[in-house]
Amino acid sequence: MSIGYRVTRHTGATINTEGDTMMQYCLLMHYQEGGEIGLTEEDMAPARAAFAKYADDLDAAGVLIGTHVLQSAVVSTTFTARDGIPRIQDGPFADTKERLGGVFVIEVPDLDAALSWAKRCPAAEWGSVEIRPVAVTYASGKGWYQPE
User: Fold this and answer.
1) Which helix (H) or strand (E) holds 27?
2) At 95, is the pLDDT very low, low, confident or very high (cuts 50, 70, 90)?
3) Which of 65, 71, 72, 79 could pair with 105 as two cysteines, CB 3.0-4.6 Å apart?
4) Digit-coded pLDDT (tens) for 33-69
5) Model pTM?
6) How many domains does the chain have?
């Protein structure tokens, strides 16, 4: 099975390789966590409302595959086995101000469509939205496959 579109990295041009096949993209949201910069629950209410509307818009357009908002990076655990030595570290591996806060998985025809949705993502107003094509995915009973 082919993904259907190949996206050129820098121009965003697409080459149709198999008809009207759709492609899945992850919109990875990176931003400073509200609690770490002193925002209260009340301060964050407008952002939560904006995310709720954004998710509703994605769903209404029929492009939303799924979404997850992650808990704070301070409760994360990082595992690595570099050089064959297992290591467990509390907290995020990278010491940065902006952290991965959540992900939307969408299914759209091409990078331009993914970009148009990323531009509407509330996280873009105070952080960044990384747009990354899905290469393979896994489903119980199906195994690893290329989404179409």
Assistant:
1) strand 23-31
2) low
3) 65
4) 888 889 999 999 999 999 999 999 999 999 999 999 8
5) 0.76
6) 1
**61 domain residue, yes or no:** yes
Nearest C-alpha neighbor of 101 from the set 130, 69, 135, 74: 69
Tens-digit pLDDT profile for residues 125-137: 888 899 998 888 8
Signed CA dihedral, 119, 122, 128, 130: sign only: negative
Cα(53)–Cα(111) distance, integer angstroms: 22
CATH of the domain at 62: 3.30.70.1060
Q: How far, in Å, CA of 1 to CA of 22, rounded?
A: 12
| Domain range enclosing 37 | 22-132
CA distances from 87 to 23, 76, 96 (A): 36, 14, 20
DSSP structure string for 37-102: GT--HHHHHHHHHHHHHHHHHHHHTT-EEEEEEPPPGGG-EEEE-GGG--EEEES-SS--SSEEEE
Assess if residue 139 is contained within a domain.
Answer: no
148 found inside a domain: no
